[in-house]
Amino acid sequence: MTAPARRWPVVARLGVAQTLAWASSYYLPALLAVPMARDLGVAPTTVFGAFSLAMLLAAAVGPAAGRAIDQRGGRPVLIASNLVFAAGLGGLALAQGPWTLFAAWLLIGAAMGAGLYEAGFATLVRLWGHGARGGITGITLIAGFASTVGWPLSAWLEAEFGWRVACGVWALLHLGLGVPLNASLPKAPPMPPSTAPNVQAERESEGSTVPPTATATAADFTDPPPLAHPLRAGVLLSFVFAATWFVSTAMASHLPAVLQLAGAGAAAAVAVGTLIGPAQVAGRLLEAGWLRRLHPLLSARLAALGHPVGVVVLATVGPVAAPAFAILHGLGNGIMTIAKGTLPLAIFGPRGYGQMQGLLMAPTRLAQAASPLVFGAALQGWGFGAMALSSGLCLLGFVALLVLPRASGMRTPPD
């Protein structure tokens, strides 16, 4: 059995735990917000407002959770996130009004800050250093089915037993499935002493893949060449992730309306929307295969162009090109999900990765919280012209990725 194969059981367990975390938090309001609001006597916007507040808290918790993973490894942090998820979902099941609704969502927000992708990525980097790139891709391939699993399960539980039972079942799954899965993760070894960049770090910076071993060595934690302007690099990366995730969340919230404004019928718009999930998985498979030979910076540039190219095709050809738009948008979104884990690793290295991820992703959480409202207002005011906003943000992200090497002092990866 090869060394990479010996790592896949860890990736599989973490991927399933991440699927549970995403399905029971980020994808929960889409199915349960309306019945939840009806039963509690509040408007659906109140439930979504509580969800937005949860994402704001997740942004605040992220850096501290990442720092804890850097210091102690991901296992205790992820187990704690399962416990807080269970408390928040249990609180939702027992909520009696706006105050208890918001309190429960705040607990879920704290768990999101310590239990979603950023924490999963940091866990693998703390275990395997530079060798974590393949594992990061593997996590996103598995958890990419969170909505595929979560939405039908939530819908069935709500229809058969009510939304309160649905939340209670998700809470029990965190205790009965999430905690054991995360408890089975390897304990993080002591961090090797800091070393100067060597041949492996050079090969990583050039985009070569170094076969990971089952157990990380000091070479897996070599520091990359020091950046001339690390703060500038961090700001640019943070902008890229915030801009692209603003667009991703906007499309997740408003895609049927966008396609209808482009001329598609209501049924066709819903049908086309189902293509995005498979396209995201296809993008992640592409990253796991051919794109893995490239530096993550090049993958991120391709990903940033997916949405605007799709918009140009849709605007030029018309509603018949709606499937092409969905596929291009989904491909870009799938690849960018991986890039937000692999690109900071390639640029900043594995030391302090967890805290860096938390800091980089904090603006992204803010953008996600604001995206449905802001883009919805743009659609009302500009119609299909609002796609200029989403395309412009992705193109600005692409430009930021172009100037990133020069702004940070890192060597430009070869094309």
UniProtKB/TrEMBL annotation:
It is found in: Cell membrane. The keyword Nuclease does not apply. Its main location: membrane. Residues 188-223 are annotated as: Disordered. Keywords: Cell membrane, Membrane, Transmembrane, Transmembrane helix. One of its GO terms (molecular function) is transmembrane transporter activity. Residues 209-222 have a biased composition (Low complexity). The chain crosses the membrane at residues 47-65, 77-96, 102-124, 136-155, 233-252, 258-281, 302-328, 382-404. It comes from the Bacteria. InterPro entries: MFS, MFS_dom, MFS_Efflux_Transporters, MFS_trans_sf. One of its GO terms (cellular component) is plasma membrane. Residues 10-409 form the Major facilitator superfamily (MFS) profile domain. Pfam families: MFS_1 (PF07690). PROSITE patterns: MFS. It is a multi-pass membrane protein. This is MFS transporter. It comes from Rubrivivax albus.
